[in-house]
Amino acid sequence: MTIFLILVLVAVRAQAVAAAGVSAMFIMGDSSVDCGENTLFYPLLHRNLSLLPCQGSQTSLLPYLLAEKMGLPNRPLPFYRQNGTIEQLTSGINYGSAGATIMNIDSQSHQCLTQQLRQVFETFQLLDLHLGQDSAQTFVNSSIFYLSFGKDDYIDIFLAENTTTTRSREFAEVLVHQVVMVVRRLYEGNVRKIICMGILPVGCAPKTVWELGGEKNGSGMADGCVEEVNELVLEYNKMLADGIVELQKELFDAEMVFCDVYLGVMEILANPAKYGFEDTENACCGLGMHGVVIGCLSEEMACNLSSSPHVWWDLYNPTQRVNSVLADSAWSVDQEHSAATSICHPTAVKNLFETSLLPPYHVP
Ligand SMILES: *[C@@H]1O[C@H](CO)[C@@H](O)[C@H](O)[C@H]1NC(C)=O
Ligand SMILES: *[C@@H]1O[C@H](CO)[C@@H](O)[C@H](O)[C@H]1NC(C)=O
Ligand SMILES: *[C@@H]1O[C@H](CO)[C@@H](O)[C@H](O)[C@H]1NC(C)=O
Ligand SMILES: *[C@@H]1O[C@H](CO)[C@@H](O)[C@H](O)[C@H]1NC(C)=O
Ligand SMILES: *[C@@H]1O[C@H](CO)[C@@H](O)[C@H](O)[C@H]1NC(C)=O
Ligand SMILES: *[C@@H]1O[C@H](CO)[C@@H](O)[C@H](O)[C@H]1NC(C)=O
């Protein structure tokens, strides 16, 4: 009797697992997906960014919060921390690297988009070897790929070169072309579920506001956001959203969503109290006025977020609390804390997960 019960329980459990929508999550991106854990020599090469561009650990970041909502049993491992065993590969991998750009501007330091793509294809080859081609393909086409780039291209190249008025459209076109090309390459590698993130309002980040804000009043405080910078980011987001829609039409057996984190963060900045925020201007972790002279070097430098809820963690990155609101709004429209509409198009991430046509693959 007991054995029978156990068997039934095991069977029910196996079914519950098999009903889950995806096999694993694979992540590519910049400091929106990596705290520096996956960045070789990050302490040396962080330039003027934070040593700790996120609050505590990778799990405070948006893709990990989404993976949690999906109930994925394993956390994606940083590429440089995994050892190529099948258990680890099938847990999902995070290729992302703090400071990574779309453009390959600075090859000795951060891993740009195409370098991360190369590592993805290395993983595919290993999966082929471990599982055989058929199973590897099923595993890949039932996994979710999450891409989040672009912020650092604007911070590093565009703002640094100060060409804001002259070639903004061409710049966005080049970036979007690269991202769309990479999505296409992933598709050719049998990837079928893709979440592509836009760029958050960089013009509202503390570093931008205090450096470029200009409109400082008597108290030396700047007001609001730097519109010029936000317009650049909006142009990129719009172009990328259109690019993904076009690609989806062509690659109709894939499921792609574009998530507009710009919209989500602006909603929070417009109604901070509604989401439980008090400080929308200062970096929680950083040195100097408003915490933007030097980025976050250690957690000891951080403010107490329980007594003073900040929107911004450091120079350009939001706090975990912001990421939680974004995760809710990306996941579905009816979450308690989500913005009124989902920030993802054409559908919320939950639907991408649940309407899966593919049974998730389980490594035997
Ligand atoms: C860091 O910032 C300083 C002052 O803003 C600048 O002169 C320097 O070039 C920056 N270093 C890097 C590596 O970007
Ligand atoms: C890979 O890492 C896992 C977990 O840390 C460990 O259990 C396993 O022995 C490692 N395998 C090899 C071949 O290093
Ligand atoms: C996923 O891969 C398996 C194995 O190659 C294949 O049978 C299945 O049709 C693929 N599904 C999609 C949607 O590509
Ligand atoms: C960019 O250039 C304009 C005009 O050349 C100048 O007024 C502005 O201060 C510069 N901005 C930065 C961030 O260097
Ligand atoms: C300057 O702007 C800040 C932020 O909007 C505001 O709190 C402060 O009262 C303003 N100071 C003056 C002198 O207008
Ligand atoms: C942070 O603030 C909360 C609420 O005021 C307080 O309970 C907590 O002890 C503080 N934590 C630290 C590390 O100071």
TrEMBL record:
<dbReference type="GO" id="GO:0016042">
    <property type="term" value="P:lipid catabolic process"/>
</dbReference>
<dbReference type="InterPro" id="IPR036514">
    <property type="entry name" value="SGNH_hydro_sf"/>
</dbReference>
<dbReference type="InterPro" id="IPR051058">
    <property type="entry name" value="GDSL_Est/Lipase"/>
</dbReference>
<keyword id="KW-0442">Lipid degradation</keyword>
<keyword id="KW-0443">Lipid metabolism</keyword>
<dbReference type="GO" id="GO:0016788">
    <property type="term" value="F:hydrolase activity, acting on ester bonds"/>
</dbReference>
<keyword id="KW-0732">Signal</keyword>
<keyword id="KW-0378">Hydrolase</keyword>
<protein>
    <recommendedName>
        <fullName>GDSL esterase/lipase</fullName>
    </recommendedName>
</protein>
<dbReference type="Pfam" id="PF00657">
    <property type="entry name" value="Lipase_GDSL"/>
</dbReference>
<comment type="similarity">
    <text>Belongs to the 'GDSL' lipolytic enzyme family.</text>
</comment>
<feature type="signal peptide">
    <location>
        <begin position="1"/>
        <end position="19"/>
    </location>
</feature>
<dbReference type="InterPro" id="IPR001087">
    <property type="entry name" value="GDSL"/>
</dbReference>
